[in-house]
Amino acid sequence: MSEHTQIAVIGAGLSGLLAALTLSDKTQGPGCEVTLIDAGQINSTSKDGRVTALTPSAMRMLARLGIDGIDATPMTGMRVGEGSADTPWQFELPDTGDEPLAYNVENEALRAALLKRLKNSAVVLRDEVRVDGLDQDSLATLSLSDGTQLTAALVVAADGRNSAVRRMAGLSVTTHDFKQQALVTTIIHAEPHDGMALQRFQSVGAVASLPLATTSVGHRSQIVWSDRTEAVKAARLLSEDALIALIDDRLWQALGVTGLDAPVQSYPLIAQRCEALSKGRVALVGDAARVIHPLAGQGLNLGIRDIAALAQTIGDAVATGQDIGTAGLIGYERWRQTDEASLGTMTTAFSAAPSRGPLSVLGHARRIAFAMVDDLPSLHGLIRREAAGETGERPILLK
Q1: CA 355 to chain centre
Q2: Spatial distance between the Cα atoms of 34 and 322, rounded to a whole number of angstroms
Q3: Average pLDDT of span 375-397
Q4: Which of 2, 263, 325, 344 has the fewest CB atoms in 10 Å of its CB?
Q5: Per-residue pLDDT tens for 157-180?
């Protein structure tokens, strides 16, 4: 059986859902015919205890696309430090009263909002179907597990860090294994966070807290703790009370951790970069395009920038009557490579730098950088704008 669509989006995670909605939107996007394909159930709202810090520009894009009703907690500032509990914070971005650095959104709530918007879209859903093959000729042809041969002018790979579509397109990746894992959970704490994120660098890795909305259980924050793989595995074997005490210690008792409000998860940390963001009629977005250390909190934000840029270059191709699968990708590749290179390099270097040991010179360089920035308040605004995704050339959807 043969079918045709203008754009096939593979993968119905957060990036895939947003890509399908954006590229099919007739007022804010190019208004293309889009088919969304996933091996699982697209409308699934399975539990996801993770949190995403969305930039203000990303929130504006969601609002323009009619994706609303998201419970988002403003992150108004950040404190960064390292060393022992009696070491003062070495760097602080204070609350300026202006736009927040980010809005912290629980992934489960974000997915629910995207699925709600999907019900009122023209996107064609093909779930519980795998992509078994990809051929590229005058069009891209996807061989699906149900026997369908789906042709498309453009294939958007949003199928994650282990993207099968990327491999089928012949795109290779370079991977750096940090030999670390991240432990993620939501904590309940006695002290209010006041909208401030905390980040503590350790001898290896770091621990960060992201402020969340206060509920009936009390003040809450998401914890992302990166450490040696064996240290995280050992932490997961602790009793809940012992783990709570350990997390409180890692945060230097700054919040007074009293409990957990989400399951404890862990996953290996890698950085991954693809040789290119497109090939033939295939474009990569989100984690299929690159994976960076969670220290930056920018993983999904980079995916959103991918989607905004792709929507604009495809829209330009549609407006001028050009092929969206060729002309639509020329500007996309150039636009996105610069953005991801700078953030990925900075994040990997800072997160990998130990505070002491053979590579402590990197940790020392990090401390010097913190001190310089903290002594130059004029740089605070620039750093806030960079963290909020407000610098550089931005697609229209992000302005």
Answers
A1: 26
A2: 18
A3: 63
A4: 2
A5: 999 999 999 999 999 999 999 999
**Short-list 104, 60, 57, 59, CA closest to 78:** 104
Question: Which amino acid is it at 388?
Answer: A
- Answer yes or no: are the C-beta atoms of 173 and 275 closer than 8 Å: yes
CA 232 – CA 229 distance, rounded (Å): 5
Task: Judge contact between 389 and 398, C-beta under 8 A.
Answer: yes
Separation of alpha carbons 329 and 399, rounded Å: 21
Q: Which residue has the higher pLDDT, 331 or 73?
A: 73
192's CB contacts (< 8 A; 6+ apart) are: 214, 219
CA distance 342 to 345: 6
104 Cβ contact partners less than 8 Å away, ≥ 6 residues apart: 51, 52, 53, 54, 72, 73, 74, 75, 210, 211, 212, 222
Residue recorded with tokens 């395009």? 289
Give pLDDT tens digits for 80-133.
887 666 665 567 776 666 788 899 999 999 999 999 999 999 999 999 999 999
CB atoms within 10 A of CB 318: 18
Kindly give the interhelix angle for 14-24 and 107-119, rounded to the nearest 10 degrees. Answer: 30
Structure pTM?
A: 0.90
- C-beta atoms surrounding 379 within 10 Å: 12
d(CA 384, CA 377): 11
What does DSSP say about strands 77-82 and 91-93: parallel, antiparallel, or unpaired? antiparallel
- Domains of the chain plus CATH, in order, are 2-175+270-398 (3.50.50.60)
Six-digit token string for 105 = 């959104």
